[in-house]
């Protein structure tokens, strides 16, 4: 299953499509040049219980590491996952 990514320099999202329908997404906006706010995560019924939220977060963390970005999430799910895995993700948490 491929996670796709769009970014226009102000906002972006990681998402999974099945039959041209978005079934999971995690959106973010840039707070400044070095920080993104992960502001929404949603997994639709078709993919629930399959760890897709974690996969979206992992993909976002890879993106942040490649681009020297930090996360200051307002999404409760993203905040909880980053906190839960803080030893693994501490380099990207602001």
Provide a descriptive summary of the structure in words:
By secondary structure, the protein is α+β, with helices and mostly antiparallel strands. It has helices at 52-66, 76-84, 86-89, and strands at residues 4-7, 11-18, 21-32, 35-43, 70-71. Strands 1-2-3-4-5 form a five-stranded mixed beta sheet. A hairpin with a 2-residue loop joins strand 3 and strand 4 (35-43). It is globular. The chain starts with a strand and ends in a 5-residue tail after the last helix. The model has no long low-confidence stretch (mean pLDDT 95).
Summarize the model shown:
The chain is α+β, with helices and mostly antiparallel strands and 94 residues long. The chain is built from 3 helices and 5 strands. The mean pLDDT is 95.
- Number of DSSP-assigned strands: 5
Overall pLDDT confidence? 95
Gyration radius, in Å = 13 Å
| Helical segment count | 3
Shape: globular
- Strand proportion, as a percent range, falls in 35-45%
Structural class by helix and strand composition? alpha+beta
- Give the biggest beta sheet: 5 strands, mixed
Report the span from N to C terminus: 30 Å
What is the helix/strand order? EEEEHEHH
- Helix content estimate: 25-40%
Tell me the strand order in the biggest sheet.
1-2-3-4-5
- Unreliable spans are none
